[in-house]
Amino acid sequence: EVQLAESGGGLVQPGGSLRLSCAASGSTRSTDCMGWFRQAPGKEREAVATQYRSGGIAYFADSVKGRFTISRDNAKNTVYLQMNSLNPEDTAIYYCAAGPICKDSVRAYNYWGQGTQVTVSS
To answer: Strand (E) positions, the chain?
Structure first.
């Protein structure tokens, strides 16, 4: 079993930055892939970015390329999402996910965090 604990969400003005963190505990052998999804009100959960333990980045949503960066600290079993140049369309609940293979489908992930709210508003 794997537990994922997210932190770092909050309220930020347009153009601002936030850094999300997700720490994995438990049977971390199942976390070869870790990544971030988000779900805005009335919309389906969508992949934002995913990364393999080896460091390879498997997926980046077109809407965040050039603004968001994903990184991992394997010693801490933690994945980060640095979000810059935020805009109101980035407002959503952001979820950390972990699983054996990186895909952009929610069905590929065995473990999920509880979610952290990111609100971009002036």
So the answer is: 2-7, 10-12, 18-26, 33-39, 46-52, 57-60, 68-73, 78-83, 92-99, 111-112, 116-120
